[in-house]
Amino acid sequence: MSEKIAFLGLGNLGTPIAESLLEAGYELVVWNRTASKAEPLIKLGATVVEDPIEAITTGGLVFSVLADDAAVEELFSMELVEKLGKDGVHISMSTISPETSRQLAQVHDWYGAHYVAAPIFARPEAVRAKVGNICLSGNAAAKERIKPIVQSFVKGVFDFGDDPGAANVIKLAGNFMIACSLEMMGEAFTMAEKNGISRQSIYEMLTSTLFAAPIFQNYGKIVAQHAYEPVAFRFPLGLKDINLTLQTASDVNAPMPFADIIKNRFISGLAKGRENLDWGALALGASDDAGLTK
């Protein structure tokens, strides 16, 4: 428990991760752009700072859970990485481009620090229940150093090698598959509804038999009930991830026609004012097409 841990970014996902680390006995120095979000962590023993660079200990660890590529690149300036310094490790849990991770890893290398991509598959409630899964890629020694820490708040840790961008590829692939599942359930449940069958009944049957998996059970409940609030993952972030997926696919000439369909569903949802809903509201597109929404 002697590691010096900085934690940057306390959004819907960052906060329960930070809480879990504190509950596991780790000492955290936390920062968030909106300072008030850090206040509840003080009761759990966190130290709050006003400037992210104040949170950094040279040679220590820093977790970041930020919204997008631009936020990560802006926050991890040369000055901040230089302070992290030799043998420091940045655990980047954001869903960002693989290429951005590779570029950030190079910058960290210049100062003797290590960058580990560590995107997590978990909604906030899954983090609190410690049933999420995390992908790692980057420097081997750095990954071994952080594994006991990340194991304190996830169920599974999966190592994808030395390429800093590899874990981000997996994360984008997984989020694409979740989005496709949302569309699939939206279409199937809507078809049933228009045939006089309740969305809840088709959900209960299929997710206890053919589709008895967490994604279908958890997101299926949201889709069946059109329960897109409270928000765990904002709708615009879904579009961000699909755009990253399409760019990553384009970079290696891998066509993803379903991803184009999903992208247009997100754009349509934003055009209809759904930016403050959970990304599960992607499934509303099928209801729109069937004349079931106003």
Automatic annotation (TrEMBL):
Key words of the record: NAD, Oxidoreductase
Protein name in UniProt: Oxidoreductase YfjR
Stretches assigned to the 3-hydroxyisobutyrate dehydrogenase-like NAD-binding domain: 165-280
Domain 6-phosphogluconate dehydrogenase NADP-binding, residue spans: 4-157
Phylogenetic classification of the source organism: Bacteria, Pseudomonadati, Bacteroidota, Cytophagia, Cytophagales
Cross-referenced SUPFAM superfamilies: 6-phosphogluconate dehydrogenase C-terminal domain-like (SSF48179), NAD(P)-binding Rossmann-fold domains (SSF51735)
Gene field: yfjR
Coiled-coil blocks: none
Highest taxon in the source lineage: Bacteria
InterPro entries: 6-PGluconate_DH-like_C_sf, 6PGD_dom2, 6PGDH_NADP-bd, HIBADH-like_NADP-bd, HIBADH-related, HIBADH-related_NP60_sf, NAD(P)-bd_dom_sf
